[in-house]
Amino acid sequence: MKASAFAYARATSVENALELLTVHGDKAKVLSGGQSLLPAMNLRLIAPELVVDIGDLAELRGVVVKGDVLAIGALTRHADLLKSAEIAAHAPLLMEAVAHVAHPAIRNRGTMGGSLAQADPASELPACMLALGATIIARGPDGERRIAANEFFAGIYETALTSQELLVAVELPVAAKSSTHFFHEFARRHGDYAIVGLAAQASVRDGRFTDLRLGFFAVGDRPLLAKSAAKLVDVALTPSVLADAASALSDELDPLEDQQATPAMRRHLAKVLLTRCVSSLLARPDLGAGVSV
Ligand SMILES: Cc1cc2nc3c(=O)[nH]c(=O)nc-3n(C[C@H](O)[C@H](O)[C@H](O)COP(=O)(O)OP(=O)(O)OC[C@H]3O[C@@H](n4cnc5c(N)ncnc54)[C@H](O)[C@@H]3O)c2cc1C
User: Fold this and answer.
1) Residues having CB within 6 Å of any atom of ligand 1
2) pLDDT in tens, 178-233
């Protein structure tokens, strides 16, 4: 199938893109890497009247460290993240997660901003943004807005962005030297969207978590920063404390049914991931003993 007829504009600057979005509103769609937009148009799931191509806007591309903040331009491609020394040094969780996004051909074109604006609940990067405490930066006709990642994802393919706004960058706190991370997803094949996944960032002192941020994905209509993580912080971890946290996690989840898994299977897999994450980050194999998929 081919896309419905549409007009095409190649934006010459961020201001030019914003002017076009202001005039055309929800009849226009931004094109970054096109790895989600173009398949959706070809399947006629969406039919924008105007496509605003921002792919030439070099000012939206790149990774820089400013003090204790890592700033990533919206047009930075997945493949660029994988090659970035700044990401490797300051956001190793993100580096590990990007390797699970699709396949090299898609990672060569798909962008950070496109992935977040797409807001697929089974996507890896939105959950990383929650775990890393990211701030999403949007620009619109009224100027710039800074949105906490936890308030950005609003449902399946829905975000806090308006149709007149561009996602221009993401800011992450530089990972503390003492911090550690965990990433794992269950998928049928490497590169497939996850059945359930977990991106976690933590600080550990004397065998206890002093901080633990658990970003689950494919467990509901949007990524989830699990509140149940609080049950694992500043306590001596025992199998019963972990079981209590796993039960609280299950109450937080609202998994969807699709051809990949039932809600019950997703709840089970999320609890398996929680256990593996805790046991791995604390180097406590005893906590994970007996847990199987
Ligand atoms: C076969 C296949 C497998 C895939 N597997 C995975 C996977 O495992 N995990 C995963 O996370 N993704 C996966 N993807 C999606 C891929 O990662 C895309 O690259 C990503 O979702 C979108 O990035 P993009 O730059 O291509 O965005 P586009 O396709 O250009 O845009 C996506 C959406 O975001 C909007 N948008 C884009 N940029 C901006 C911006 N700066 N400001 C405001 N709105 C914007 C567009 O209007 C559109 O609605 C897969 C895609 C394919 C085709």
Assistant:
1) 29-37, 39, 74, 101-102, 106, 109-111, 113-115, 117-118, 120, 123-125, 161, 166-167, 193
2) 899 999 999 998 888 999 999 999 999 999 999 999 999 999 999 999 999 999 99
Q: Do the beta carbons of residue 100 and residue 204 sit within 8 Å? A: no
Domain 180-287 part of CATH 3.30.70.20: no
Which ligand 1 atom minimizes the distance to the CA of 125?
A: 11
In this structure, the strands spanning 69-73 and 50-53 are unpaired
The correct CATH number of 7-53 out of 3.30.43.10, 1.40.20.10, 3.40.50.10490, 3.40.50.300 is: 3.30.43.10
Q: Going by CA atoms, what residue is nearest to atom 33 of ligand 1?
A: 118
Angle between helices 263-281 and 239-252 (to 10 degrees): 140
